[in-house]
Amino acid sequence: MKKSILLIIFIGFSNIMLGQLYEIGVSLGGSNYVGDIGRTNYIYPNKPAGAAFFKYNWNPKIALRATYSYLPIEGNDLDADTDFRVTRGLSFTNTIHELAIGLEYNFYDYNLSESDKTWTPYILLELAAFNSKYVVSENAPNQYVFDNKNSFAIPFGVGIKSKLVGSWAISLESRFRYTFDDDIDYTTDTIQSLNFGSNNSDWYMFTGVSLIYTFGRPPCYTNGL
């Protein structure tokens, strides 16, 4: 009897695993930042960036998603739209490495195996941790010592995806990250030459195109929202 129960559980679990649809993909596009230096456009990709992700389609409306992103950022006051910043003339570069987990919510049912469900707009709701450089000290005028630190961000995003051919799909999305830090542009009140910041937290963003490969048997979805 015990062996029969274990066999039923194993078969049921195997069917669930095989019956779901999985996706892997890569994103290529651009990143940008909004803070105390340079432009203040939230969608203005000015540095090449990329990402890789894995998704588990819980049902036709919801996919669970994990993403690694490589996001160089820069700011230059000469590109700003205010006279104060242009005259000030500050600039910086930094590189963000981010891990994000969360869910992708489709506005329409999405299923590549059904011809009338092969595209949808969607939103992203995630939690993100990121690594970036910050200034530790100033050894000599304009000669700074840097270190790396880990921080958290509140991420959200929007996109649209569609079947491309066979098991391949394509998407266009923008992701926005509100950080709890004001120093990814190196501003700090402990070094006079870098004490140019406000009390507002910095943002960083990614906008790009994703190529997605779908695999697994035709889905037997969990009942969803």
From TrEMBL:
Superkingdom assignment: Bacteria
Domain annotation DUF6089: ranges: 3-222
Cross-referenced Gene3D superfamilies: 2.40.160.20
SUPFAM superfamilies associated with the record: OMPA-like (SSF56925)
Cross-referenced InterPro entries: DUF6089, OMP/PagP_B-barrel
Protein's recorded name: DUF6089 family protein
Pfam families assigned to the protein according to its UniProt record, in alphabetical order: DUF6089
